[in-house]
Design a protein that fits this description.
The complex is a heterodimer of chains A (295) and B (272).
Chain A: H1 5-10, H2 13-42, H3 59-65, H4 68-99, H5 106-113, H6 115-118, H7 121-131, H8 138-145, H9 159-187, H10 191-199, H11 204-232, H12 236-241, H13 253-263, H14 267-275, H15 278-294
Chain B: H1 2-29, H2 33-38, H3 51-59, H4 62-94, H5 99-110, H6 118-127, H7 137-158, H8 163-170, H9 175-204, H10 207-212, H11 221-229, E1 230-231, E2 234-235, H12 237-257, H13 259-271
Antiparallel strand pairs in B: 1-2
Helix pairs in contact in B: 1-12, 3-12, 4-5, 4-7, 4-9, 4-11, 5-7, 7-9, 8-9, 9-12, 9-13, 11-12
Chain lengths: 295, 272
Amino acid sequence: MTRSPLLSRLDSPRVLGYLLITPAAIILLGLLAYPLLLGIWLSLTSATIGKPGDFVGLQNYATIFADPIYRGAAWYSVFYTVCAEAGKLVLGLALALLLNQRFRGYRVSRALMLLPWVAPTVLSALAWLWLLDPQFSAVSWLLVRLHLIRSNIDFLGHPWNARFALIVVNVWRGLPYFAIGYLAGLQSIPKDLYEAAAIDGASGWQAFRRITWPLLLPITTILLAFSSIFTLTDFQLIWTITHGGPTDATQVFTTLAYQRAISGGQLGEGAAIAVSPIVIMAVLAFFVVRSVREK
Amino acid sequence: MRRKLGIYVPLALYGVFLMLPFLWMALTTFKSDHELAQGLHPFWISEFTFSQITNLLTQTAYLQWFANTLFVSVASTILSVFVSYITAYAIIRLRFPGSEVVSTGIFLAYIVPPAILFIPLASVVIQLHWFDKLWALVPIYATFLVPFCTWLLIGFLKNIPRELEEAARVDGASNIAILWRIIFPIAVPGLISAAIFSFTLSWNEYLYALVFMSSSINKTVSVGMTSELIRGDQFQWGQLMAGALIGVLPAVLVYFFFVEYYVAGLAGSVKE
């Protein structure tokens, strides 16, 4: 087969390689890397919507760190993430152990259990908002009928109720992701390890402590780090259910950044709020990259 | 028997917790406004009606939002899967100088959450005159779909044996021919995985559509519902839940059709 010199040059791995990655490079450099740097720059300016503003150094950061609403948002972002991750890990792992037992209806259960993760978050958050309605809450109704409470709980009207309600909804949405990840991890553990442990007279709990859990540790790191990055910067769920209320009790980095930058027009200050969790995320990203490399 | 109870009782508890919002959507959708206002028995429908659905479809812009979401999801899926496939192929098979750097870059792009990008991206969108233009969401969604799909496809292409393409190369096939005629057909299951994930992720997206679209005619389902069906403290719960139920369906249907690809892709994305 003979080819024109131009075509065969085009087909060399070097030229073709660069050509094939060009579309991805344009999209990711233009709409991801550039905005990321622009965000850091904006956080150092007094930009508002429509006005580029001036360079003000770290003034926006000084302003937000002195702002009790920002401090509350930073605190709740971390609290929300820690509690929700703990809940997802424990309930996700328990569900995976349950599903790993191969029973009738295994496939249907596995398919159904992923639904919270598949369904659009805003739409299921609307259903939760309605489930937690102060007057018509079906959750309150059930608890009253079970004689666990006397009257309806105002789930979203009190700061601590709202904080925990959001954590429960976040666990609801994210636990299938942990369950499916752990299920994959469990299925890759060789069965003969358990047989050997049974011969040595190990109890179920000992087998879990000495075999299952250590072998699941790498996958736990990945799941936790990934999930934490996206929980720390969660927006849709909190924005749909509480809008950061009541009186800023459930404000997080992203909802506050949205309010200040988009609703309030203070781009510089909003950018500083959005950029501020990058330090925490860099630490989490480090763990992700390290554990992915090790595999 | 005890073993069975030990499985099915906890499983039923999980089932109630995980399915409750969907059950709730369905129950509310088929109740009349009159019944909802009374709020007698939340888990029982005494006046079954389709009026919430017909009102939603005739009195609001819901169908328009639905069509918009469908357009954006399908278009961004096609764009992203195509771009990701050629990128993954270049990284895995061509090994050009710098391919390691590109693959690390793509992985890092994968873990940048939209929540820290939307403010500067808003100013980029305004400068490009993309603001309130529905198609603009297609390249914007590609910023989170391309890293994800490329990562997934890299894992997939790694496992395709090299012998196939080496045989073709001996026969004089060009790299492009190998990309399209040899690898592409084998990569179809991986591409399907990438496509269903892209579709679900786009269907799910909220923040970018909320910030970058402003006229009702350009809104997606999630944005239209939260910005136009909720006015002040007036919640039209019947219509809202009907809209949520219909809006959940496409994602769920795609998922049920391809559940094995979905589970494999999800498990793979954790393991690779």
